[in-house]
């Protein structure tokens, strides 16, 4: 890809809607999701944006720093969305449905981030300066406590709450991380609006059947 000339990078440069820094983050996410950390170079990212490597280094001093910011920025966004759903006034099944739909729609908006998370999980988090499992553990424990409490109250059917959460993790994330494989199975584009709507409803229906007691 031809490298385009640049304006000054003393401040964030607006090109269209996205600044150069934002374009770097977008391109880095796409590259890390596609090729992984080891398979991506700063030259790849710079070429994708249409800048030179020294200009990229003006914004991010290293590949490690860029990777960290991409990951943590989207992790923070995900937490913000989930925290909002958890804090909403809904209770019982309505709360679970809200959280499921919130998570699903975040992943639908950010499929490359899902692939990046899955790669990092497989690699054991070795490219991050944070322990991802430790960061996610408080939310996992909070959800476990919620399900257990609601099961004890008779709101939900009795399940192993921790296993249920792991099932939910796989049900939500694998659809987006395995998109190319699924297209060959489904004969439809998994990221089309119709396919996403069908998948979202299936996930919600699956958990409703597993949790909500049927009328007697």
UniProtKB/TrEMBL annotation:
Superkingdom of the organism of origin: Bacteria
DNA-binding region in chain numbering: 41-60
Endoplasmic reticulum among keywords: no
Record's keyword terms, sorted: DNA-binding, Transcription, Transcription regulation
All residue ranges annotated as the HTH tetR-type domain in the record: 18-78
Annotated GO MF terms: DNA-binding transcription factor activity; transcription cis-regulatory region binding
A Pfam family it matches: TetR_C_29
Name assigned to this protein: TetR family transcriptional regulator
